[in-house]
Amino acid sequence: MGIVSEEAIDEFQELMDQAEEPLKKTFERVHQRYLRENLGRFLKARDWNVCKAHTMCLRWRVDNEIDSILSKPIVPTELYRDVRDSQLIGMSGYTKEGLPVFAIGVGLSTFDKASVHYYVQSHIQINEYRDRVLLPSMSKKNGRPITACVKVLDMTGLKLSALSQIKLVTIISTIDDLNYPEKTNTYYVVNAPYIFSACWKVVKPLLQERTRQKVHVLSGCGMDELLKIMDFTSLPHFCRRGSSGSSHHTQSANCFSIDHPFHQQLYNYVKHHYETRGQAEPAKQGSFHVGFPEPEAERCVIAKTIESELHKIENCNSLAMSTGDRKASHEKLEDDEP
């Protein structure tokens, strides 16, 4: 870390020391005793601009009571199961350096069994559990700060229907960008079909260099490359050779399943913290509504570019099908001629 970076962190820390008490309290949950490392990641996300980093930092957490979200279970259990079945995300293990490995079923997530607020609540709860429980535990175990994770994105099943999910995905990614910056070291993309390749080709030039360097598109299921950074037991199920992506797996290996140890631990943690407030588990509870931040201009451009590319592919497919139908009809007429 250079002199300029250290000076920026010092300046940022002075501003945080002057912050009002609610902001200081929520920042304690954010930095988990690794103060300078976390100041650094907010600064890095804003190109070391102290004013921009300070603006993005904590107000959203206070205004939306994020500190209490790990005591807000999604109930009843059937609803939580529906969320897990349609928002495919889980933790499969750790890298050899101790970073949590999060698996995301991009192609097969449908987001069609609950309201958008439940999916956002679930996503933030996973973020908070990662930052408050998993990362501090691994930092203690390894004797050094571990403040980020890696993500493996499974594109199995990615279809043109992804158009309907762009708005929700933009909301979630904007929340991450503004409030959980630099929490992912690397994104590994696996099982990528043509539709992903076409979209990636036009989106890649729009990304900041820092972001582009984090994305690695791997061949096939990516197992050989991923085994360089993690053991086989930490591989997501869809990366194990012989699997068929997110849709074929055993429940014990499927880190997306509500029955996987990670999701059981998370759900029990949230339930326990609800009950310690002196209340029995509610039979039904509304979703935890969070204010959706406005996406930055860059993210809007990316979303529109993806949408445009998907429409192009859709139109090409429709044209090809129409041409094929006309050809088949013409061939049938020729066959019917005496």
3D structure, described in words:
- Helices cover 51% and strands 8% of the residues.
- It is an alpha/beta fold and 338 residues long.
- Strands 1-2-3-4-5 form a five-stranded mixed β-sheet, covered by helices on one side.
- Helix 1 (3-17) packs across helix 4 (50-56) and helix 9 (194-203) packs antiparallel against helix 13 (297-336).
- The longest helix has 40 residues, at 297-336.
- The chain is globular.
- The termini are far apart.
- Residues 248-252 and 328-334 have low confidence and may be disordered.
Helix percentage: 40-55%
- Using only C-alpha atoms, the radius of gyration works out to 22 Å
Q: List the uncertain runs.
A: 248-252, 328-334
Sheet of most strands: 5 strands, mixed
Number of E-state strands: 5
Alpha-carbon distance between the two ends: 83 Å
Main β-sheet, spatial strand arrangement:
1-2-3-4-5
The helix/strand series, from N terminus to C terminus, equals HHHHHHEEHEHEHHEHHH
Q: Which structural class do the helices and strands define?
A: alpha/beta
The 3D shape can be described as globular
Number of helices: 13
Quaternary structure classification:
single chain
Strand content: 5-15%
Mean pLDDT: 86
